[in-house]
Amino acid sequence: MEMLINQDIQNDMPCRLANLEKSRFYVAASSANRAPLFNRFLWKDYSNRVMEAGTANAPHIVARRTGEMLTDSLLRSIDFLLERHDVLNCSIEAADGNLYLVRREKRPAAFREVVVAGETKEEREDEAYRIANSMVWEEYDLENGPLYRVFLIRLSATEYILGVALHHAIGDLLSIGIMFQELLSIYGSVALCAPLRLSPVRLRYMDYLSSMESWSSGTACGEYLRYWKDKLRSSPVTGLPSDGKRPLYYAGQESTGESKFLLDAEASSDLKKIAVRLKTTLFTVLLAIYKIALWRMTGQEEPVVVTLYAGRLNAGFQNAIGNFALEAAYKTCLSGNPDFMELAGRVTRAMNEAHLRQPVPLDWARRALAEEGVHFCAPGINFISAGDGRARNHLESRQLKFTPPGARHGCHGFPAACAIEFRDGDGVIEGSMVYRNDLYEESTIRAFINCFIQTAYGAIRFPEKGLVSAG
What we know:
The protein has about 475 residues and is of the alpha+beta class. The protein contains 14 helices and 13 strands. It is globular and about 65 Å long.
């Protein structure tokens, strides 16, 4: 995520970098075949969820393609991929109240091929999409593995759908892209008997987990943990007004709803122009608007919003498969009636500060606070650009719902009562708000969405007016 480094932080950067270097998290090559999972996506507050719902999160790529696809060459390519990324041979073990990733012996490829039947092209396509949807979300055997799958659905001799999926225990969104692109690259070399040109994988996900286990008991980790506890203790709960049925931090088996909206092409273009003017990203602008809308709905002057970023803190992980994604909590002060331009700067500073205080998983701070009786809950935010290929997914263009069980869009490892996702595609920003409908009425969510939209238009028309006057 590209971000502007604020001048205040830039002036203090030498000191900050020196301190960061002293406490830096280093990853060392390890021979370990078993390591604890520090994966917040798997836990929530009920540790058996991952064992009950193996598809709670499943990053995937499903692509419609034309041409020839040789099954034998594809199988050989998957086999090579298993040698290159041994995390694909892993399974999950539960012991002592913890989850462990365990490396197993390499097995035959987790591959399925289906030839679709149907009298018409439309019938075959509908059946292919139904099968693809089923294969993506089919539950994983976490105890025995594998935690990945590859499938080929043939619509005709020259038309097919190729899909790859990973359980979130071993892969994030970057990982699924790495796996898909490398599979195609390897297949091209195998099919043409050409030399393979892939950079070596320098560090493994198991190296990361093992190093994280050692680092977690050190002084540096303790300092990071204290920082986040102090940061979040003063604003433990951010959320919309609930109907009072239960506390916002409740994290049992939730029921969720979803409400969608659009920002028209003109507004979407204007927001991108604001990002250019501020020399920042569209994500930062949307986050600032999100925070203002939260303030207007709740009166909270220091709202906290949780999001994800890549978390690949070591260059050796750039082509590794694993779940390196880290949560970041962005806490911003809205007091003093700042105008939108000033507030966007505050949001940028909060983001920079949060990233300098990683890599301790934010969930560790949440759990530590819970032990003190302080329950942390914050809304989530996610941003998807058309540039990553997801917003224009061919299957989604057919209105096919790839819907995992449970909460989505940034709810992940935190008890989030609501979360919002933005998709920047085809010149229009699409918004989708997922919320706990056991906490919120749909009318409350629609009121918030309307507040967000009006706040966005206010930022466009009156970027230099204070929040109060612009409201």
